[in-house]
Amino acid sequence: MRLQDKVAIITGAGSGQGKASALMFAQQGATVIVAEMNEQAGKETVKQITDAGQHAFFYQTDISDEENVRQLVETVHEKYKKIDILFNNAGIGFSARSKYKMASVLETPLEDWNSILGINLNGVYLMSKYVLPIMIKQNKGSIIHNASLNGIIGVSGADAYTASKGGVVALTRVMAADYGKHNIRINCICPGAINTPMISEVLDDPEIAKNYETGPLGRVGEPEEIASAALFLASDEASYITGLIMPVDGGWSAV
Ligand SMILES: NC(=O)c1ccc[n+]([C@@H]2O[C@H](COP(=O)([O-])OP(=O)(O)OC[C@H]3O[C@@H](n4cnc5c(N)ncnc54)[C@H](O)[C@@H]3O)[C@@H](O)[C@H]2O)c1
């Protein structure tokens, strides 16, 4: 019970890493607010948690919409009187299903650039902007951002995605500097290739998939392996850790 009685908001908790984190946080005693754009997926996560006798609550959220984010945070604060943990996980990225083009600068329409940054970077800013005042009043909080390996190394293509994740990495450091005095810890996970719907179509193609099965551990990661890192950073076990940019990538960035 590493998160006993904690209240945690997890964005994008209807799928992949966010869902794995929601299930794990709830198992560890947290009440989890599933802040997810996809209603069906978000409600399914909540059902799995409550069916197991644990606590969760769905709030349909588009993290790129300021009014929506403001209402989410107000509702959670009114209901639970505190917010201990914010996992800024939701994002859009590599997927054949994505309506946004993942390409280099020359092939990226401005509209797609703005949409990708609007979710992956502005969404993190907006969620933080509305949760921080509550954590400042509590004089305690843990915020975890989910960036990407693309935020720390240059991978060809997906330039808007890469820029958005680089922005999240930089934002982690400056937020840690700004809010440490309020006992708020801000850390960032940089996943490598993780087996979630975001990249499932890529992994389904054996020719492309083998490009992802490189690095010291020679395999892609599972969403639970990100959830474990998020759980540690969220918990009081990480009480002296802030401003950390943590690759969880099977060693991909080390070689
Ligand atoms: N899967 C990977 O290989 C990988 C690698 C590095 C980083 N990441 C990052 O990890 C995070 C989680 O991705 P995942 O792999 O679990 O993908 P996923 O597609 O399985 O899950 C993402 C979830 O976010 C939700 N979402 C998207 N836009 C939203 C919005 N505007 N508001 C609220 N919710 C929204 C989606 O509905 C979905 O449920 C993302 O930020 C992604 O960029 C993924």
From TrEMBL:
Entry's Gene Ontology molecular function annotations: oxidoreductase activity
Q: Which family does it belong to?
A: Belongs to the short-chain dehydrogenases/reductases (SDR) family.
Task: Give the InterPro entries listed for this entry.
Answer: NAD(P)-bd_dom_sf, Sc_DH/Rdtase_CS, SDR_fam
Does this entry carry the keyword Oxidoreductase?
A: yes
Q: What is the lineage of its organism?
A: Bacteria, Bacillati, Bacillota, Bacilli, Bacillales
Q: Which GO BP terms sit in this record? A: bile acid metabolic process
The keyword Ribonucleoprotein belongs to this UniProt entry's keyword annotation? no
Q: Which domain of life is it from?
A: Bacteria
Protein name according to UniProt = Short-chain dehydrogenase
SUPFAM superfamilies the UniProt entry points to: NAD(P)-binding Rossmann-fold domains (SSF51735)
Arranged from A to Z, the UniProt key words for this protein are: Oxidoreductase
Note the PROSITE patterns from the entry: ADH_SHORT (PS00061)
- Mention any Pfam family matching this sequence: adh_short_C2
